[in-house]
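Revision sheet: structure tokens.
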Amino acid sequence: MSASLDMSLPAVPARAAPWAFAVNETAASHDVQITLLSFAVVGDIVRVSGLVRVPNSRDVRLSAVPDLVISPLDGPSLVLVAAHVLPQGRMTWVSWVYERPTDLLVPFEARIEQIGLLYQVGGHFQEQPQGPWLFRFRLPPPSEPAPSGTSRPD
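Predicted:
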């Protein structure tokens, strides 16, 4: 991170309107690519969505939701509330829901240590590749909503 970043930004108010940030960070290990797509804040929860891909194998899927640990660089991990997957062949949509942290405008680190894969070739067998799949990102302040009755340019 650049030393010139302004570290004095205030926390987003607890009752601010819902907002989302495109993370778009990909990490790869053991021929498994994981992309964190978005970080959405709604009320007291945070939803992180992503994709898990195994590009060189057609007969594999996730055997469980990967454990995504997210924490501010100088604080405790976010508390996981729920997680789910939606398999789509070699690509799987994954969603994790966390309790909202007090401060959102800080640098975050997200990490997956291992994932479970289920292969469907010649019967079923499982593998648990070790990562880590590591992501670092910082959320920008939410943008101001457009005033009622006006539209934003495309």
